[in-house]
Design brief:
Radius of gyration: 15 Å
Bound molecules: adenosine-5'-diphosphate, magnesium ion
Oligomer: single chain
Helix content: 25-40%
CATH topology: Rossmann fold
Strand content: 15-25%
CATH superfamily: NagB/RpiA/CoA transferase-like
Number of strands: 11
Distance between the termini: 23 Å
CATH architecture: 3-Layer(aba) Sandwich
CATH class: Alpha Beta
Strand order of the largest sheet: 3-2-1-6-9-10-11
């Protein structure tokens, strides 16, 4: 299957997840994330605000702030690029941005991507070699190419989003790990 076919198949599957299963799986993913040594020892974590049926990491984001860690959330700048912006309050500090996704206000300056220790990367489909398929706009590929090699990237997915093999182009950035409601994979 090419990227386009795989994307529409995987999105269709994600669209059909029940509210109950989404809540259940998101809770398991959140608990697993909180228990990871790499998360516990990180100072600056970039997470995301869930779009559509993506795994709901909101309570994880709150926990990051409660721990006194720095939380960064993406903010789209145009049709190609996004920045990571530090957020102190995910309930009041965000506005509705591109694609209706909550994002930090324009007045706050982005962080230097080198400052980030861990990035949680949402996506449409993943494989167990670190490949990831997004929505087809390349935002994360471009953002990750600005980060240091040291940054620990963790894909966040439901188990049904794992496929045997995801087609990858030269610009696609591989992930270092993947977390699902069932398992934590390090590649
Ligand atoms: N680092 C990059 N520099 C320039 N163009 C890029 C870069 N990363 C991705 N792109 C472009 O973005 C588009 C979408 O990338 P793709 O990997 O198919 O999307 P996604 O990762 O969102 O599934 C492609 O046309 C690709 O050429
Ligand atoms: Mg890509």
């Amino acid at each position: 299957m090419d990227k386009r076919e795989l994307r529409s198949k995987a999105l269709e599957m994600r669209k059909n997840i029940s509210v109950k299963n989404r809540v259940l799986a998101s809770g398991l993913i959140t608990e697993k994330l909180k228990s990871l040594e790499i998360i516990k020892s990180s100072k600056t974590i970039m997470s995301y605000m869930p779009y559509g049926n993506e795994a709901d990491v909101l309570s994880f984001n709150k926990w990051v702030l409660d721990q006194g860690k720095e939380l960064c959330i993406p903010r789209v700048t145009d049709s190609k690029y996004m920045d990571a912006v530090k957020v102190n309050d995910i309930e009041n500090g965000l506005v509705s941005g591109h694609f209706g996704i909550a994002e930090p206000e324009k007045s706050v300056s982005p962080v230097n991507p080198d400052e980030i220790d861990v990035i949680l990367v949402p996506g449409v489909a993943f494989d167990l070699s670190g490949n990831r398929l997004g929505h087809g706009k390349g935002y994360y590929d471009r953002f990750l190419s600005r980060c240091s090699d040291r940054v620990f990237t963790i894909g966040v997915a439901y188990s049904f989003q794992i496929f045997d093999s995801i087609p990858a182009d030269a610009h696609d950035k591989k992930l270092k790990a993947l977390i699902t409601e069932d398992e934590f994979f390090v590649f």
